[in-house]
Amino acid sequence: MTALHPISRRTLIGGLAATSAFVVLHPFSTRAAANQAHLRIMETTDLHVHVFPYDYYADKPNDTLGLARTASIVDAIRAEATNAVLVDNGDFLQGNPMGDYIAYKRGMKEGDMHPVIAAMNVLGYDCGTLGNHEFNYGLDFMFNVINGANFPIVCANLTKGAMAAAPRQDELFLKPYVILDRKVKDGAGQEHPIRIGLIGFVPPQIMTWDAKNLEGKANARDIVKAAEAWVPQMREEGADIVIALSHSGIGQQAYAENLENASVPLAAIEGIDAIVTGHSHLDFPGPKFDGTPGVDNAKGLISGKPGVMGGFWGSHLGLIDLLLERDGGQWRVIGSTSEARPIFRREEKKVIAEVGDKPEVLAAAQKDHEATLAYVRTPVGKTSAPLYSYFALVADDPSVQIVSQAQTWYIREMLKETEHSDLPVLSAAAPFKAGGRGGAEYYTDVPAGDIAIKNVADLYLYPNTVQAVVITGEEVRNWLEMSAGIFNRIAPGSVDASLINGDFPSYNFDVIDGVTYQIDLSQPAKYDKDGNVANPEASRIRDLKFDGRPIDPKQRFVVATNNYRAGGGGNFPGIAGDKVVFVAPDTNRDVIVRYIVEQGTINPSADANWTFAPQKDTSVLFDSGPRARQFLAEVKAVKIENAGDGSDGFARFRIQL
Description:
Helix 2 (about 65-80) runs antiparallel to helix 10 (about 360-375) and helix 3 packs across helix 10 (about 360-375). The chain is of the alpha/beta class. Helix 9 (about 265) links the parallel strand 11 (about 240-245) and strand 12 (about 275). It is an enzyme of class 3 (hydrolase).
């Protein structure tokens, strides 16, 4: 279908000429013997089109992100090692307004250059793989983009059409792997040939998340099964070292079919020497992985193999250092270290940039950066009240409310001439910017007045499309029970207990508008974060009512949502593709823009359709952004008090239940 550019033949040897600054060599480079060599693997992952250190949603610079920042340290980090390779681990194509501007406004014709690829080409990557978000704009768009890369992009589990009987028989869109013929310099300064194999993997869940773009055109094989088939072939073809580019998180140790986060069982496969990971937007080694089964966080090992996860949006450069020894004409790993090196640090409440920009990277995307700024600043309407998400996890929230209002408006219009026109329409929406791993500034905050496109993108981060499902009242209840898993269980009489379960993603905290309900925190969660039944007799959802009356478990409802949730994303009980009755051609963001234009001025004030059930003499704590303090008086459904400072720049708040 497409032709990739040939493998780069540039030299692997780094050196002090790469930087004018004083460089301290890694111990492997200084201690390597005559038959030993130091190989450094440098990784970027989950760039999500963040080339500039700029937050387009806030329309201001941001020192925590940007490939231009990460790029500025690549030369120096390469120079710390005698030999180095640079790889990207996927999710580079979608994720900020520049990505949407290119996809929806500028377009990508055959031969066009995408700004993120232009920026990556500056750095001389050796290889890359695909992430799940590469498919958000369709296959043709993706291939037009990656054809501009001057480095190979590999993926071993993305098939054309149906999967074959065995992985090696699959017809793949891309090469499953490449083997780079390079030279490495040993501890005595002698050069030796080495064959470095790089193989890539994408989560099979793309077939759910992007079914509209992939159904009938592609399929995705289980990551581990694909690796078990292809890695031995790489060895048969003479790969000395095999590096897995796993756009998959560090999840459970035990293998199960079609795991989304499969990096631990993947690393365990014989023949894989090292693994770079991503997808989860975390940094490994790091404290989040203390005690994770199959992981040695102190040594940076995953199933005993060197591994790394380099943050997201360019926040870190992932580093794996291998000490190789030549044995009978072949290389083997005899030592390793791993590190996720950040581009910034926090001092008290301030972000301190550790690095500057690489001018050549900025120049590569400058024109599209300026066009994106003009794109996101275009007004589309007004809001009579501020839109913010600081309290979206603890109270009905204006940033979620406006999404639900727009979805309801749209679906009612779309279904009015269909067999479902007489069914009541509910709407499910979740907060996308709710702090957490995104940091203390990762919240929607739009003042009253003009709303520009940048603000709509801030309300709804992803280019999901609208879908509608038909479900029963009982399934509505279970949907909400799943959402309520974001809260820890709170014993009555507890003082300042922690409210939020940090392992539960905020984008799975759906609020359903059109019904009213309370959440009883004294009850255990019925479902765990993966949708498994944890406490079958539990029920956190109380007083669930529609139109002022207890909901009929058998009554049918239309629920407006997005393609991710309707297709089974998040593993919500009973919600899957067989419940879908309407697939929209429009993105949720486009619908929000249309709604605002139609209304002229919107009123996004939350209607408090959900609250916590009261618990006598019980208080809980949660963290939010410091700017949340100015909105305390606006939250009517629950009394929130300032409780001082949290960690990592967050502010802390208390609720008296």
